[in-house]
Amino acid sequence: MQDDETENIPLLGQRRQILSKRARRYLTENIRLKNASFPLLVCCFVTGFIDAGSYNAWSVFMGMQTGSTRRVTLVLSFLVQTLCIAIAAILVHTDAVPESAVSNELVLIAIPFLAAQSGVQIATAKSLGFNEIPTTVLTSVYNDLASDTRLFAWDNPKRNRRLGAFTMLLLGGISAGWLSRTAGRFTVVLWLGAAIKLLLSFGWLLFSADPD
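The chain above was modelled as a monomer; its predicted structure follows.
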């Protein structure tokens, strides 16, 4: 009986090594960028969502407070964004920061966390090469649409992404306004925003590897 257990130890060790190598290789692969714009469009929704909630509560647009395509980098980036929103949500939920107090300086404690997640979000979008989806401020989107010589062309992926970014940010703002009015609490907006970012974090694991 003991001999059988002794013989199984090397086999278990080999299996663990193989699984560890596969996991490491999978996480460090570059992902295919074919559909990578979709998570960024969802980020636009989250921006509009949190912006509308923060403006309603604190009169501040968080998307304005801004400062490699490897799978593990994207996952960690979105987990950091999730953590930043979650910290802000905890601060507001525990009343460490007032939920609706424009003139209260304690609001400044939560703002840096939401601003940081906006900055990381922008950097991630640029690292993926989708400059037409800024995910926060839409000024560049308006400018690019107005100057697009192929604006009405049938096949224009960049125009489609810009219009998608505008639409998703608008939908996010409308959703947050409705939720703030019905739920009556900004924390609901923050927790929902954090949940969406968490889903996006692990969503990168589903992207296929870049064949190149």
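The mean pLDDT is 82.
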